[in-house]
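Quick question: what would this complex look like in 3D?
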Amino acid sequence: MRKYLVEFIGTFFLVLTVCMTVLGGAGNFAPLAIGSMLMVMIYAGGHISGGHFNPAVSLGAFIRGALPASDLLPYIVAQILGGIVAPLVAAPLLGSMGAADAVTSRLDVVPSLIAEFLGTFALVWVVLHTATAKGTEGNSNYGLAIGFTVLACAYALGGVSGGAFNPAVATGISIAEIKSFSDIWVYLVANLGAGAVAALAFNFVNGRD
Amino acid sequence: MRKYLVEFIGTFFLVLTVCMTVLGGAGNFAPLAIGSMLMVMIYAGGHISGGHFNPAVSLGAFIRGALPASDLLPYIVAQILGGIVAPLVAAPLLGSMGAADAVTSRLDVVPSLIAEFLGTFALVWVVLHTATAKGTEGNSNYGLAIGFTVLACAYALGGVSGGAFNPAVATGISIAEIKSFSDIWVYLVANLGAGAVAALAFNFVNGRD
Amino acid sequence: MRKYLVEFIGTFFLVLTVCMTVLGGAGNFAPLAIGSMLMVMIYAGGHISGGHFNPAVSLGAFIRGALPASDLLPYIVAQILGGIVAPLVAAPLLGSMGAADAVTSRLDVVPSLIAEFLGTFALVWVVLHTATAKGTEGNSNYGLAIGFTVLACAYALGGVSGGAFNPAVATGISIAEIKSFSDIWVYLVANLGAGAVAALAFNFVNGRD
Amino acid sequence: MRKYLVEFIGTFFLVLTVCMTVLGGAGNFAPLAIGSMLMVMIYAGGHISGGHFNPAVSLGAFIRGALPASDLLPYIVAQILGGIVAPLVAAPLLGSMGAADAVTSRLDVVPSLIAEFLGTFALVWVVLHTATAKGTEGNSNYGLAIGFTVLACAYALGGVSGGAFNPAVATGISIAEIKSFSDIWVYLVANLGAGAVAALAFNFVNGRD
């Protein structure tokens, strides 16, 4: 139960930061804020839940053998709940700032599938190597590495697909009307597919220790 | 005594950075500077005083059992003193730069209470997990995590409430006339309330070790 | 084989980030994204391949005695392959974003040789000290140091030479038509020369342990 | 001899980054680049020379008992040499970029003395605590802390005094005609004075271990 609460809190703050910075005028500073928030929530919650905050990461961790099967569904539920509550909390705050309404943009499907696949692959690749491999045990920088993967991928790929790399974030930005629910399957397919492929690639190059 | 001096110095530099960057034209780079200054003061002073620099953090640390009751009041006094001296030092420096006078903005009360509560909850949550939990002992990145929580929250929530998350900062920005003293109760209520709630949440998920 | 795959993946994401941020409108945030991507790929892959992602680094590591001769050529091949594939993947993504075509700029030869030499010297100097010296064993921050060397050098020197500091990046930006293939010798000479000189300087000040 | 070479190289790259970013159009990204370069040079060279790259730091380290008297003068000579060579190397690179000539600005003396004193105090305070105190032994983040102190102070105080906090940087920006040699005494007095005061404050709160 405590693990699921930690996953909810971390995902909530991650998606809140996405909604508030993208819609609140942070411009090109948004990826810095988002990557930093992911980093700090990992440093806070990682010792209790592993600090996934992302169903694609939980799927990858499960395939790699770093998450028990019985935790997979509750983790995803907690994460999606965080992704649902965050935009509901953000809405009145954005209203108070006088932020303009979101203009819902549609995805260009094939490039978005590629961009979301690549960004999520990078993210899960970094998570599994820095937080679950024997070769990096004792290294304090897993949180920095994981958070700044999202930072870098958001700058590189956000212009294509919005840069979610995370079904919980995709849920949040759909509720916030930054993206359309009609396109959410793009995120689900690309993010979960990339999480699985990254875990298999990890198992190949690292072994399962 | 040495602990209180460390708390004064760290809070002074934190609030000085707030005043100088917000009023001195750093624009959207202000949160990067402010979060970085908090981080470096924690790395410098943490081994002596714990590196709180924030009454809400000291309150949370006390509730969590990481600060003796006899230190709570002196810590808060030293922090508030830092928050008072910093804007007095900043004023002539800003004058020399030709910075425009501050335009005091009033708070939209309910959204500001929410924003300050959320940001301070995140901050104290990260502090207690990274700097006081057994599960993160030996991890060098507590300072990075704590400083960059303020960075991320300032980008996400600063547009709503100014982004103090800290009664000593609230004191400083009120003296600097960035915000009005008539609204300082919003910060006190939200920051101290969030510090207490975050400590209780920490005690629930982590136990008191 | 696993090491070469790790070198390919890391270099691919590094060069992809270069192409996407330089041509996709990230402006002055590009070095932050690029340095961050290099950092995270080092934290992910370093425990398997050393995390070079750069023929100049592999040459320097070989001269310093930290890479077996038999690995030098396969490493460089894997890196250059990453530098070839990345711009081919980036092209349709940039098209989908509506990014303007690259305007190929030519190098001012002598200043570019100096800038590329200096940046690559700094990079290989930092790599060898933070990732191969006895005096820094156990320090978690090699990835941060190496990634942010590229960040700092790109801000300082990118305006002169484009800021590759890496023949695999030079290959990628030539394919992406950011720079001209007629000038690629500038990168090869300056990057590989600086990698060798930095390794000799390292061996002099540090000894070969 | 090897220590002095490391001090020369680190200071050279620090001052080169200052000149290239301030005069080369990096705008508000300059402090990010400068703080990052200081950080990476500390991670590279710290295990050999201590990574001072700043006469005010060497003076503070000497007073704190962390630098032998016989090294103080050679360190300062190596650092000042780095500060002299860097702008000479930067000049043709800036010319090649088509950078505008520097417009030499004069200092407002009293505010600049205050700003340089405060920034250098913060810097030497962080250096001594993170790199020489028993209480922080084993923490990997001294380089991040020290580099980002300069980052934060440059955003906060750079608009007042230029943000040198370092006589070697002051030498470099005087040669580069960013500031006037007539004002260099301001830096020497404030930086060395602050280095000494910070060391005494450190000795008071930490003891000499």
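Answer marked as accepted. Helices of chain D lie at 2-23, 30-49, 55-64, 69-97, 109-132, 142-161, 167-175, 184-206.
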